[in-house]
Design a protein that fits this description.
With 357 residues, the protein is mainly beta. The protein contains four helices and 17 strands. It has helices at residues 2-14, 112-117, 122-125, 210-215; strands at 17-35, 38-45, 52-62, 65-74, 92-99, 102-109, 146-153, 160-167, 180-189, 192-202, 227-239, 242-254, 262-275, 278-289, 292-304, 309-322, 345-356. 41% of the residues are buried.
Length: 357
């Protein structure tokens, strides 16, 4: 009788909690011209969606209050390696509470620019890693996250939701060193979605942007910005079988040399579901950094075997102009980092498969 009662109590307790294991695997054969003095064919990882595995869970605490956690780490399907050997869960490592008041989340996570505006960019909407902007300085791709962060997200009221985020620098005697702040708002109503966001990161390392900075003579992989300030906005609209998106970002780079150049990026995209299981994506992107500019054009086709499995063919072409001497497409470098072409033009084509679970 005691064992039966314990079993019932245990079953009741577990019924109040849930844990989900999820992930994404993506691999394709890519051809890249004008790279390292020639062309290259290779197996690419995470082109349509980033390779990742995660754990997400909730516990019902009663009174509409829930405890939440998320652990998510990235990896490379083509090699089994990881983007950051020092962080097991490099994409998300959070715990928090949610309820009628909204949600409070603590830990390691991307900023509000990625969460709100990044999902309206060409890289996300047209499912092509190569379409994120040179160096990913605006963080529209999840390659840089806040450590030691606290985020508050409001409940959704009339389609509106807002979010504030603060990352502690945790440097004794200098509260601004390494401090990160971010904020934004999003609106959704039927076929319309819009978002604005802001982030300011102090003492951020160049990271993926190192190769890009070298190509324009502003820095290198060891560069640490005094601050990196991003303003971003985006909009999406679905009209029947056509989905449209646009995004704009402006990034102010406060360099250790005292220079303060600005990178400006514009995305325009369209996706046409011309058949039940088939979609064609069209995209155009413009990036400017002072007198340099890069125009990126893209075309892709996605066939859905199911909601979890897709086959795709993609092509992206970038042309440098103005003071820019080289194409600098995000993703053409090693392990998906920014690469520098051997000239002003570069073409990337990929045929691959994506599966989520």
């Amino acid at each position: 009788m005691i064992a039966a009662a314990a079993s019932c109590l245990s079953a009741g307790a577990f019924a109040q909690s849930s844990v989900t294991i999820y992930g994404s695997l993506d691999a394709g054969v890519a051809y890249i011209n004008n790279l390292g003095g020639g062309s290259v064919s290779r197996l690419d990882q995470g082109t349509m969606q980033p390779d990742r595995i995660g754990f997400r869970g909730t516990e019902d605490l009663g009174g509409n209050l829930k405890a939440n956690f998320q652990l998510e780490g990235g990896f490379y399907t083509d090699s089994g390696g990881v983007p950051n050997s020092t962080k097991l869960f490099n994409r998300y490592s959070t715990v928090g509470l949610s309820g009628d008041f909204g949600a409070v989340t603590l830990g390691h996570m991307p900023d509000v620019v990625f969460d709100y505006v990044g999902k309206l960019s060409n890289g996300f909407q047209l499912t092509n890693w190569y379409l994120f902007h040179p160096g990913n300085l605006d963080s529209l791709a999840n390659t840089y996250q806040f450590d030691n962060a606290v985020r508050y997200t409001s409940p959704t009221v009339g389609g509106f939701q807002g979010s504030l985020m603060y990352g502690f620098g945790e440097v004794a005697g200098d509260n601004s060193n390494g401090r990160n702040v971010s904020a934004g708002a999003t609106y959704g109503n039927g076929p319309l979605r819009a978002a604005v966001a802001y982030s300011k990161l102090n003492n951020r390392a160049a990271g993926y942007a190192g190769t890009f900075l070298t190509s324009v003579g502003l820095g290198n992989a060891t560069t640490v910005f005094k601050s990196l300030t991003t303003y971003a906005g985006g909009i999406g609209y679905t009209l029947g079988s056509v989905r449209l998106n646009a995004a704009y970002t402006q990034v102010k780079l406060d360099m250790p040399t005292g220079l303060t150049p600005k990178q400006k990026n514009l995305d325009l995209g369209a996706a046409w579901r011309y058949a039940t299981l088939d979609t064609i994506n069209f995209g155009y992107g413009l990036s400017k950094l002072e007198g340099a500019r890069w125009n990126t054009f893209s075309l892709s086709h996605v066939h859905e075997f199911s909601k979890r499995t897709q086959w795709y063919v993609q092509a992206a072409y970038q042309r440098a102009g103005g003071d820019a001497r080289f194409a600098v497409m995000n993703g053409t470098g090693a392990s998906g980092s920014t690469g520098v072409s051997g000239g002003q033009g570069q073409l990337v084509t990929t045929i691959g498969m994506h599966h989520s679970f």
